Amino acid sequence: MLKICCLLATIFLLSCKTTTYFVVRHAEKESNTMSGDVPLSAAGKQRAEALKDLLRNENIRFIYSTNYIRTKSTAQPLAESKGMDIQVYDPADTAFVGRIRKSNAGNLLIVGHSNTVDDLVNKLVGETKLSDLPDAQYGDLFVVKRKGKKYSFEKKHFGN
Question: Sign of the C-alpha dihedral, residues 110, 117, 96, 11?
Fold first, then answer.
């Protein structure tokens, strides 16, 4: 009987656990380069630091970024402050969101692009909340919380 009570208590506690997905577009990029894989500008580096400051106490367990300099550089200050590696994901991988939705590994940060952040958020929430972000729009933080089978969405802003 004690084992059954412990099992039921564990299942109850796990179903009440909240996982938070923090989704951002990369910070401001340099505009005067000929490369398609452009680094962050000075303003972008400041915004990446602001993201680190905002998320430092959010118990981030995983950090995901596309394989571009600007996205990885946006995540890098937080990753370094936590001693974590950045996991590279492919925005064309249609199974990525399903894998992270099934995971109960804790809170995570995902850094994408103006034309991929909306897809990530919409798939996480299970309904359309966003469309492509304007190219000149930076500093939006999309917070998706999962508690049990319920998802909530909130839009915040970070940096200057």
Answer: positive
Quote the pTM value.
Answer: 0.89
Place of tokens 């990446």: 48
CATH fold of 18-157 reads Rossmann fold (3.40.50)
The DSSP line for 34-89 is S-SS--B-HHHHHHHHHHHHHHTTS-EEEEEE-SSHHHHHHHHHHHHHHT-PEEE-
pLDDT in tens, 9-40: 444 444 458 999 999 999 999 987 777 899 99
- Each residue of 87-108: pLDDT tens digit? 999 999 999 999 999 888 799 9
Angstrom CA distances, 56 to 49, 70, 83, 152, stand at: 10, 20, 12, 21
H or E stretch covering 101: helix 96-102
